[in-house]
Amino acid sequence: MVDFSNIHEIGCHNPKAAISLLCEVELRGEADDKVYYVMGRLYWRLGHHAEAVNCYRRALELNPESDARHALEMATQVFDFFNPDLLNP
Length: 89
What we know:
Elements: H1 4-13, H2 15-27, H3 33-46, H4 49-62, H5 68-81
Helix pairs in contact: 1-2, 2-3, 3-4, 4-5
């Protein structure tokens, strides 16, 4: 079982370290939808959006009712808002 309070505390100060801990959980085969959801949030915070989306999708595969559903919807809205014409007037 993952101690998410510990992961949250570490993630606030060092998201990469928190991701490493969650990857260890994944490698042990103990990852559930919450692990992937939290990992996705940490990746998003670091600007690794593709990895975040992959984690959200994995969480939804494991549990269609996961909180990752909302996070994935928000990520999709961010991607849909992006307009390359704004960068090239």
